[in-house]
């Protein structure tokens, strides 16, 4: 174990590869973070504005310098505007990803997407029914076409409200209507945020933030939910699968291909190509024992959930995965792919391929995937990766992989419980499980890599709180060994008993970041079964190491759905005490939940436990005072 790198990451593979990176003179995200210090205080507080060219402006937080921008906007307005723009960008990222899937579904319906098909017929019919599409005796491709069309309308402006919003508990829907945040078209809310935050439009910090909530809801109950549902329809609804995590999943004697990004449209085709006998034969001819596909970040989570494809690492180690020298090819789509990746790869034999018409990167070869060429292009790329095997130099894979189980869709969780959420509710009522928490989100060099996720998760499960996770948090917890049946040894006695009897780990991998929609569906199912609202349940969420605009959108729709959410890093809002008070307290009176901010996961665990016990007390369940 390397002492010098312990301050950056708790992971053994991360520490050892950081040492290797230093030896190879590779600059990493941590080096660049340090070079940026001290970061701009105005920006950190949300008090700088470059919305127009009368600026850029800043408001002095100490009251000595300017208190208003050139246009007259004060700190409250500037902070609220900046936050809303973060929500819009995050909602756009998730929702545009959803749109890409809907477009593939439409192409499948037209027979123009060779290699793609409808994998989950039951889900196709169930989701179609939500859209009031008649399915009885109808050809599945016709249903798929009509569903794709109806979903496309959700993106536009033809409806008063998004279709899937009606799957939320009724009380929640009524509340959203009452306070005027019922999301309409997905694109419409994003576009309206950009309009409202233009100079001289919405200058009420409260009304801005209220629209920010509506925009975020259009992501959670719209774009992200559509992304998840259509991914399940096209690629199958996940069920528990054995897999493995950390850089040790790379294989010295095989061709290693790593997929990085978010959209399964590309990675699923790569996986199929990797499995084809023709490709396996070619790999053998080139002296490799096989083709090993691994994931990084959320496209990795998508493959892990559905096929058990192993996970090489999460966001902050994406550069380090390349320093193993073992990766023949990395294929990326979009989101969270550092623009430095091409530079790192240039020091090894790794070939870097970008695939999305909307995402280019320095040092990568651009090979664009579209539904009509995806199958053939995937084969071409895998062939090129195999041919690159002989160009390998030194290989350094310093750790053994950790086993994990992934693939807990709501469907499989409910099935494991015997077809209804009732046993889970009974366990919560009896106090064997005190509550459930979604630990989600990214890595961020401001927090020691994986420390936030792993520490918080450990404290929660040892206090009988069930953890569900997604995104980079889920990868961190897989690497920490929390996702095997034996991990019940880390759990408190009640959680251990329940998970032990069901044969499931105490930490359930629910997928990628768009799959936070699955957590909404689960929370909604619990609330409906208990005939109450989500905000009454002993639930919470946490994003201990978040960094991205997507995470801001997720946080806001989670709180707006009634779930207390604790953030690790502070969002850029401290320049306005009005905004801080609203988000951390005032929202309780508006949506029945608010944010907490606590970078220390030990303290975050206490905040969450206290919240859960309070909710239990309110429900008349046995509770303990903390
Ligand atoms: O969508 S958790 S670092 S990879 S943003 Fe990105 Fe954050 Fe990872 Fe996935 Ni989500
Ligand atoms: Fe400055 Fe106002 Fe323009 Fe922002 S919108 S840059 S505060 S003048």
Automatic annotation (TrEMBL):
GO molecular function annotation: 4 iron, 4 sulfur cluster binding; anaerobic carbon-monoxide dehydrogenase activity; hydroxylamine reductase activity; nickel cation binding; peroxidase activity
BP-aspect Gene Ontology terms: generation of precursor metabolites and energy; response to hydrogen peroxide
The keyword Iron-sulfur is assigned to this record: yes
Swiss-Prot/TrEMBL catalytic activity: CO + 2 oxidized [2Fe-2S]-[ferredoxin] + H2O = 2 reduced [2Fe-2S]-[ferredoxin] + CO2 + 2 H(+)
Positions of [Ni-4Fe-4S] cluster binding: 262, 298, 336, 442, 472, 513
Pfam families per the UniProt record, alphabetical: Prismane
CDD domains found in the cross-reference section: CODH (cd01915)
This protein's UniProt keywords: 4Fe-4S, Iron, Iron-sulfur, Metal-binding, Nickel, Oxidoreductase
E.C. numbers: 1.2.7.4
Binding residues for [4Fe-4S] cluster 2: 49, 52, 57, 71
Annotated InterPro entries: CO_DH_a-bundle, CODH, HCP/CODH, Prismane-like_a/b-sand, Prismane-like_sf
Chain sites annotated for binding [4Fe-4S] cluster 1: 40
Cofactor(s) this protein requires: [4Fe-4S] cluster
PANTHER family: CARBON MONOXIDE DEHYDROGENASE, HYDROXYLAMINE REDUCTASE
Protein name listed in UniProt: Carbon monoxide dehydrogenase
Organism: Desulfonema magnum
Upper taxonomic lineage: Bacteria, Pseudomonadati, Thermodesulfobacteriota, Desulfobacteria, Desulfobacterales
């Amino acid at each position: 174990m390397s002492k010098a790198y312990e301050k950056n990451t708790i992971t053994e593979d991360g520490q050892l590869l950081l040492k290797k990176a230093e030896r190879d003179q590779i600059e990493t995200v941590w080096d660049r973070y340090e070079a940026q210090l001290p970061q701009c205080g105005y920006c950190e507080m949300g008090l700088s504005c470059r919305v127009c060219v009368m600026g850029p402006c800043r408001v002095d937080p100490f009251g000595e310098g300017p208190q208003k921008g050139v246009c007259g906007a004060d700190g409250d307005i500037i902070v609220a505007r900046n936050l809303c723009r973060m929500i819009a960008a995050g909602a756009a990222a998730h929702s545009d990803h959803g749109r890409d899937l809907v477009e593939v579904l439409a192409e499948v319906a037209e027979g123009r997407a060779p290699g793609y098909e409808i994998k989950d017929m039951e889900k196709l019919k169930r989701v179609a029914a939500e859209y009031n599409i008649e399915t009885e005796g109808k050809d599945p491709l016709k249903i798929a076409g009509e569903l794709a069309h109806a979903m496309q309308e959700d993106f536009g402006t033809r409806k008063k409200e998004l279709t899937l919003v009606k799957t939320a508990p009724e009380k929640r829907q009524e509340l959203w209507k009452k306070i005027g945040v019922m999301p309409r078209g997905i694109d419409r809310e994003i576009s309206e945020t950009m309009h409202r935050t233009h100079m001289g439009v919405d200058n009420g910090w409260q009304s801005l933030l209220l629209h920010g909530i509506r925009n975020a809801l259009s992501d959670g109950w719209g774009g992200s939910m559509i992304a998840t549902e259509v991914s399940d329809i096209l690629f199958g609804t996940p069920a528990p699968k054995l897999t493995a995590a950390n850089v040790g999943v790379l294989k010295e004697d095989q061709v290693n291909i790593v997929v990085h990004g978010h959209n399964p449209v590309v990675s699923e085709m790569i996986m199929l190509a990797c499995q084809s006998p023709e490709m396996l034969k070619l790999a053998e001819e080139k002296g490799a024992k096989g083709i090993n596909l691994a994931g990084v970040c959320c496209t990795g989570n998508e493959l892990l959930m559905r096929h058990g494809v192993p996970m090489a690492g999460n966001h902050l180690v994406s550069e380090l995965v390349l320093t193993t020298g073992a990766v023949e090819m990395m294929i990326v789509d979009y989101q969270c792919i550092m623009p430095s990746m091409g530079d790192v790869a240039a020091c090894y034999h790794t070939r870097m391929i970008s695939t999305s018409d909307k995402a280019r990167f320095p040092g990568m070869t651009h090979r664009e995937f579209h539904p009509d060429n995806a199958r053939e292009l995937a084969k071409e790329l895998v062939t090129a990766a195999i041919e690159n095997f002989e160009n390998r130099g030194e290989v350094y894979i310093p750790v053994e992989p950790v086993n994990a189980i992934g693939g807990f869709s709501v469907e499989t969780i409910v099935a494991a419980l015997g077809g209804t959420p009732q046993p889970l509710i009974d366990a919560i009522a009896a106090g064997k499980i005190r509550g459930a928490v979604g630990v989600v989100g990214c890595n961020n060099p401001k927090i020691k890599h994986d420390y936030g996720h792993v520490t918080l998760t450990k404290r929660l499960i040892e206090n009988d709180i069930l953890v569900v996770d997604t995104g980079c948090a889920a990868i961190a917890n897989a690497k920490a060994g929390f996702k095997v049946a034996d991990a019940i040894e880390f759990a408190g006695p009640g959680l251990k008993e329940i998970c032990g009897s069901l044969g499931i780990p105490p930490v359930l991998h629910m997928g990628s970041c768009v799959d936070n929609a699955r957590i909404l569906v689960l929370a909604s199912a619990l609330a409906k079964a208990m005939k109450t609202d989500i905000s009454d349940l002993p639930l919470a969420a946490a994003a201990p190491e978040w960094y991205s605009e997507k995470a801001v959108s997720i946080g806001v729709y989670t709180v707006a759905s009634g779930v207390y959410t604790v953030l690790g890093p502070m969002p850029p809002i401290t320049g306005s005490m009005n905004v801080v008070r609203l988000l951390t307290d005032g929202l309780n009176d508006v949506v029945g939940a608010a944010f907490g901010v606590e970078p220390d996961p030990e303290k975050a665990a206490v905040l969450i436990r206290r919240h859960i016990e309070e909710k239990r007390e309110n429900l008349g369940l046995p509770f303990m005072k903390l």
